[in-house]
């Protein structure tokens, strides 16, 4: 009986973590050429009520917006905000990786390239 209870507790914990997985919108952006460009996009994205965190990698031309738990944001809204700031979105994807994971991946790649 204890094993069954323990197993169901673990299972419910795992399922609840899946249900509330982080959602991050990652966009590749053309036209960002300086820190001021990146700062402008970051400021627009942070102003959204759905935003938990933002990461802009100028060198890789990537903008990642991590959403707060339970929040949604359409790809079109992200594209429109970036376009209104004067830049072009070349591709967009949704991932379940948090900003910290994405940032670490780019930093590792840049370190390897040196």
Automatic annotation (TrEMBL):
A Pfam match = HMA
Please name the Gene3D superfamilies in this protein's record: 3.30.70.100
Keyword hit for Transferase: no
GO MF, any single term: metal ion binding
InterPro entries assigned to the protein according to its UniProt record, in alphabetical order: HMA_dom, HMA_dom_sf
Give start-end of the signal peptide.
1-21
Name assigned to this protein: Heavy metal transport/detoxification protein
- Species source reads Methylotenera versatilis (strain 301)
């Amino acid at each position: 009986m204890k094993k069954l209870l323990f197993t169901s507790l673990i299972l419910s914990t795992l399922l609840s973590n899946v249900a509330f997985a982080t959602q991050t919108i990652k966009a590749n952006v053309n036209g960002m050429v300086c820190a001021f460009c990146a700062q402008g996009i970051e400021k627009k994205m942070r102003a959204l009520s759905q935003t938990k965190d933002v990461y802009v990698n100028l060198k890789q031309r990537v903008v990642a917006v991590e959403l707060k738990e339970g929040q949604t944001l359409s790809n079109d809204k992200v594209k429109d905000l970036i376009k209104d700031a004067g830049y072009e979105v070349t591709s967009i994807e949704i991932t379940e990786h948090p900003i910290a994971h994405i940032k670490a991946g780019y930093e590792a790649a840049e370190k390897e390239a040196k």
